[in-house]
Amino acid sequence: MKNVTAIDNILMIDGVEILFKYKITKFAEINNVVVVRLEMRSRDDDINNIYGVIDGKIAWRVQDMLEFNPDYAPFAPNPYTGIRIYDKNPELIIATSWGGFRFLINPNNGKIVGTESWVK
What we know:
Elements: E1 4-7, E2 10-13, E3 16-19, E4 24-30, E5 33-38, E6 50-54, E7 57-61, H1 65-68, E8 80-85, E9 93-97, E10 102-105, E11 112-116
Antiparallel strand pairs: 1-2, 2-3, 4-5, 5-6, 6-7, 8-9, 9-10, 10-11
């Protein structure tokens, strides 16, 4: 486990600073990847507000939900409001969008690998 902290838009991993464009609102460490969610923005170029940091460098930005499934077009833009390690499969991150959609994300590359319903 790494020593990870975040202050405003700076992520510190074992003393190495990684600078982001916006404030860091949440991060989670999974399999040597630090997954970071930035402050929510509404501009199209900022809606994919989840990043993966590997070996002290930003390695990926989450796949656009429209690339994953174009049927989400009526709901775009739709930034992410939450991330956490998925309790049913701790090898994945679950990210919740502003519209209430829940996407399963591969923490190694930022690709959306599925969806999860919040209805029980």
